[in-house]
């Protein structure tokens, strides 16, 4: 399934938080490890983080290091999987933004897909870059200065980006090829002056899958309620501290 690109001796950081799309983390990590890479999961907190399959909770993965423990100089490449919640949490973290910037400043390889490029935009790195992402965040990328292309894989210098899980096979092939290169990586994509237009309809992959997915279980609803209550309590404490 994957090219025989050796990644022996390469250390790869995977930046993810709760709510990562499970398949977008587990399949690339499996491919990286199969090629000899050492992979660490870097996150906002210690312990284990929860994946999702669209809106349904999925299995957890164990965090190797938290952001305050991880040093970008220890790694050769960075993978940012998608999911709706994980990139949204990460883009609000100054430590996460700094972590991503360090890789790009050193021109180390960065691979991201789906909603993952949100953090590239929030880190101020997308101006003048050619890239892709989940079609639903196309406008975010364009407004952040990127040229957005509706393609399964876009390579621009030290970046590889893809639209989502439907593009995993070509994404993994492009990612492993990129990660086999040594930083600093220079060069850029063939420049396009204009982004591809907005889509006329959302991806059928999601609309079809959601139609046949079961309704959330009682356990899921209780979990969401508990998390929501915790967030509200934390916000109240923060507001009280400000006063």
TrEMBL record:
InterPro entries for this protein: C56_PfpI-like, Class_I_gatase-like, DJ-1/PfpI
Domain DJ-1/PfpI: 10-175
Transmembrane segments: none
Top-level division of the source organism's lineage: Bacteria
NCBIfam families per the UniProt record, alphabetical: PfpI (TIGR01382)
Family statement: Belongs to the peptidase C56 family.
Name this polypeptide is given: Permease
Organism of origin: Noviherbaspirillum denitrificans
Classification of source organism: Bacteria, Pseudomonadati, Pseudomonadota, Betaproteobacteria, Burkholderiales
């Amino acid at each position: 399934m994957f090219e025989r690109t050796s990644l022996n001796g390469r250390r790869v950081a995977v930046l993810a938080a709760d709510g990562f799309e499970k398949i977008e983390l587990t399949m690339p990590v499996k491919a990286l490890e199969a090629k000899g890479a050492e992979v660490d999961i870097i996150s906002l907190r210690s312990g284990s983080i929860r994946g999702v399959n669209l809106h349904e909770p999925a299995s957890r993965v164990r965090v190797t290091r938290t952001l305050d423990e991880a040093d970008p100089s220890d790694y050769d490449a960075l993978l940012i999987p998608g999911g709706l919640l994980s990139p949204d949490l990460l883009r609000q973290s100054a430590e996460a933004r700094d972590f991503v910037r360090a890789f790009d400043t050193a021109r180390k390889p960065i691979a991201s897909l789906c909603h993952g490029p949100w953090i590239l935009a929030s880190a101020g790195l997308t101006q003048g870059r050619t890239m892709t992402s989940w079609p639903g965040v196309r406008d975010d990328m364009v407004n952040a200065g990127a040229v957005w292309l509706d393609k399964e894989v876009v390579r621009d210098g030290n970046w590889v980006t893809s639209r989502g899980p439907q593009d995993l096979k070509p994404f993994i092939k492009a990612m492993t090829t990129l990660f086999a290169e040594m930083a600093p990586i220079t060069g850029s994509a063939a420049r396009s002056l204009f982004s591809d237009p907005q889509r006329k309809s959302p991806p059928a992959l999601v609309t079809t899958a959601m139609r046949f997915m079961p309704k959330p279980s009682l356990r899921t609803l209780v979990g969401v309620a508990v998390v929501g209550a915790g967030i509200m309590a934390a916000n109240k404490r923060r507001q009280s501290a400000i006063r």
